[in-house]
């Protein structure tokens, strides 16, 4: 009975809205081919793939490729590089926009605030190639960093060829690129903090610092949690394109991360199934991490993504 | 009366600045001064890389090699600009970027606008499912290897289609557009429906003309993203005459980097200084259109982010 009614109203809505469904058709085909087919294409992690053959592979090989990377010492090396680089980025790049937003929030001159915002958002709109180009020039032997070192009597350091400097350069340029843009959501949250709370705090004798601590920070806590969840979820995807542009064989020992390794294994050396297995592993860990961060934050602070 | 209400209004958004000033005026003044200083320094740091690249692009290779260039050009000249301007491949790649950006933006706009419109119709059966299909792609994507396999097997390698099609629907842009359509006044569409206009007619003749602002915004978002992209070209194109300018620049950087790695530049050869010159000029010319549209993009992007985060 119920099913029948459902069918009838489906027919009715198809009759009335067929043009809307028609408009959705091409986008849906697009999503099926370019988003969902690659997701299914991950089965080649468990199937032997012949270049030029079936894109979903030819025959099942089970967990062969999975055990291959689990037993691959290079994999574990790049895995720990990824965790270190991702962890450093998270620890440095997550709090700085909050700090900057608090500083901007205290600026009373609107024009000055706007100028600071416009300048600090700018790197967000640049191609990653441009950003890496700038980093390379600043850190080159003739670049500003070495000009300062030699001016102080030191000896020029080939930063970009030194593995021990890679993390510093990566995280530093990441800050430059993201700190301004990262303030947007916090600034929006700050405008919604109820001004009567400040007045009440003031009457209670709270000075500026305790106002920030007890009124401002709690006001932006949901935003902080949401962004923290998102950052944790994308933690393993450390700027793949940036590392790829910035690293070289001399810095592999600290710079090589999971995504660059699977890129070289898969697309340069043509072990596509092996690389797909690593990629799938990374994607699943990412998903698990978002879900668990979301779960924990919902339990602990009552803020969650969905 | 009027004055009173005016004062009440102007006092509210300032969140009691007067009262606070009187409370800790000395300490607060120090703080304000310190705060402004920090922010000014921050701005200088943000701008410095642009300044030094610009200075290098006008300097002589010798000055760069000697490490003399920081804020101002040394031995001012435009030789490098002339050299790059005479490089046929640079202009060819620059032109490719323009073509790719235009074509990709048109494709993306057609798909995003029509899909967003459908998703904005609250009465539509299956709407939730359609939205779910779109949003899921934000959290899980196929990954680089399956994508590569797909594009190769579709025969799109070494064609512009590999660059202009796969980026066609950005879910973020889709959601921003959807909520714009949802907030359009409903009565116009209802009136058109009573007049017997079909959905196609309503969409084309009523909704689109009302949406010029959001369409302009989306065109900017997409074109900035496509202009900046290099990775799709890096993966799928082998022929240098097809490259976009970002890949041209990437190859310059990679060439300089591998030269340095092999120790050629360790002794500070002119080759690396010369390439620093050419890099700078290429970077300036590549970034110029972005700087040009930046004021518009920034304003809309900020409001878009808000919209997306409120609705998202």
List the helices and strands and how they pair.
The complex is a heterodimer of chains A (306) and B (312).
Chain A lengths: L1 H40 L5 E2 L10 E2 L3 H7 L2 H21 L1 H11 L4 H12 L6 H12 L4 H8 L11 H16 L4 H9 L3 H9 L4 H12 L1 H13 L6 H7 L5 H4 L2 H11 L3 H29 L6
Antiparallel strand pairs in A: 1-2
Chain B lengths: L1 H10 L5 H7 L1 H33 L3 H5 L13 H7 L2 H32 L7 H13 L4 H10 L7 H4 L6 H12 L3 H9 L4 H12 L1 H17 L2 H6 L8 H17 L8 H42 L1
Helix pairs in contact in B: 3-16, 5-16, 6-10, 6-13, 6-15, 10-16, 11-12, 13-16, 15-16
Describe the structure in your own words:
The complex is a heterodimer of chains A (306) and B (312). With 306 residues, chain A is mostly helical. Chain A has helices at 2-41, 64-70, 73-93, 95-105, 110-121, 128-139, 144-151, 163-178, 183-191, 195-203, 208-219, 221-233, 240-246, 252-255, 258-268, 272-300, and strands at residues 47-48, 59-60. Chain A has a two-stranded antiparallel ribbon with strand order 1-2. The mean pLDDT of chain A is 85. Helix content of chain B is 76%, strand content 0%. Chain B is mostly helical and 312 residues long. The longest helix of chain B is centred in the C-terminal third of the chain and has 42 residues, at 270-311. Chain B has 2 domains: 18-49; 87-311, Orthogonal Bundle (MetI-like fold). Chain B has helices at 2-11, 17-23, 25-57, 61-65, 79-85, 88-119, 127-139, 144-153, 161-164, 171-182, 186-194, 199-210, 212-228, 231-236, 245-261, 270-311. Classes of the chains: A mainly alpha (306), B mainly alpha (312). Chains A and B meet through helix 1, helix 4, helix 5, helix 6 and helix 7 of A and helix 2, helix 3, helix 6, helix 7 and helix 8 of B. Chain A: Keywords: Cell membrane, Membrane, Transmembrane, Transmembrane helix, Transport. Chain A: This is Protein lplB. Chain A: InterPro entries: MetI-like, MetI-like_sf, UgpAE/MalFG_permease.
């Amino acid at each position: 009975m119920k099913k029948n009614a459902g069918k009838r109203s489906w027919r009715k809505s198809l009759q009335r809205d067929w043009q809307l469904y028609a408009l959705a058709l091409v986008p849906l085909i697009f999503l099926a081919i370019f988003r969902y087919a690659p997701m299914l294409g991950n089965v080649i992690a468990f199937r032997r793939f012949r270049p030029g053959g079936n894109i979903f592979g030819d025959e099942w090989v089970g967990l062969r490729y999975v055990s291959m990377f689990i037993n691959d010492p290079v994999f574990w090396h790049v895995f720990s590089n990824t965790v270190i680089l991702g962890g450093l980025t998270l620890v440095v790049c997550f709090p700085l926009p909050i700090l900057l937003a608090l500083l901007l929030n205290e600026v009373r001159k609107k024009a000055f605030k706007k100028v600071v915002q416009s300048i600090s958002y700018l790197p967000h709109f640049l191609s990653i190639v441009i950003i890496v180009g700038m980093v390379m020039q600043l850190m080159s032997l003739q670049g500003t960093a070495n000009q300062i070192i030699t001016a102080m009597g030191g000896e020029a350091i080939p930063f970009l060829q030194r593995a021990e400097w890679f993390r510093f350069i990566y995280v530093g340029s990441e800050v430059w690129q993201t700190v301004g843009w990262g303030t947007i959501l916090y600034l929006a949250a700050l405008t919604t903090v109820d001004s009567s709370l400040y007045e009440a705090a003031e009457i209670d004798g709270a000075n500026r610092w305790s106002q920030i601590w007890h009124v401002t920070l709690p006001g932006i806590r949901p935003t902080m949690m949401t962004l923290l969840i998102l950052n944790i979820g994308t933690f393993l995807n450390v700027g793949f394109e940036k590392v790829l542009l910035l690293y070289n064989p001399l810095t592999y020992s600290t710079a090589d991360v999971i995504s660059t390794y699977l890129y070289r294994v898969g697309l340069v050396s043509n072990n596509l199934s092996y690389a797909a297995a690593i990629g799938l592993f990374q994607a699943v860990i990412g998903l698990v991490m978002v879900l668990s961060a979301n779960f924990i934050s919902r339990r602990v602070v009552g803020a969650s993504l969905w | 009366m009027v004055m009173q209400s005016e004062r009440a209004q102007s006092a509210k958004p300032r969140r009691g600045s007067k009262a606070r000033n009187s409370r800790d005026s000395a300490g607060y003044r120090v703080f304000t001064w310190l705060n402004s200083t920090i922010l000014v320094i921050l701005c200088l740091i943000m701008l410095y890389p642009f300044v030094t690249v610009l200075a290098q692009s006008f300097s002589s290779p010798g000055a760069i090699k000697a490490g003399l260039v920081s804020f101002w050009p040394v031995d001012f000249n435009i030789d490098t600009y002339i050299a790059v301007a005479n490089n046929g491949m640079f202009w060819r790649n620059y032109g490719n970027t323009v073509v790719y950006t235009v074509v990709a933006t048109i494709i993306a706009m057609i798909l995003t606008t029509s899909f967003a419109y459908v998703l904005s119709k609250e009465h539509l059966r299956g709407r939730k499912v359609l939205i779910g299909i779109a949003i899921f792609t934000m959290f899980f994507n196929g990954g680089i290897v399956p994508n590569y396999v797909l594009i190769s097997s579709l025969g799109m390698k070494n064609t512009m289609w590999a660059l202009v099609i796969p980026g066609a629907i950005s879910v973020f842009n889709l959601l921003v557009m959807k909520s714009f359509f949802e907030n359009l006044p409903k009565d116009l569409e209802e009136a058109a429906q009573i007049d017997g206009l079909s959905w196609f007619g309503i969409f084309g003749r009523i909704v689109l003309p009302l949406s010029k602002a959001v369409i302009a915004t989306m065109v900017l978002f997409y074109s900035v993203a496509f202009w900046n992209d290099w990775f799709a070209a890096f993966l799928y194109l082998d022929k240098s005459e097809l490259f976009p300018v970002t890949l041209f620049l990437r190859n310059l950087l990679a060439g300089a980097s591998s030269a340095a790695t092999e120790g050629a530049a360790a002794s500070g050869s002119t080759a690396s200084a010369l390439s620093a010159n050419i890099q700078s000029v290429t970077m300036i010319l590549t970034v110029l259109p972005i700087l040009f549209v930046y004021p518009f993009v920034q304003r809309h992007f900020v409001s878009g982010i808000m919209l997306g985060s409120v609705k998202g």
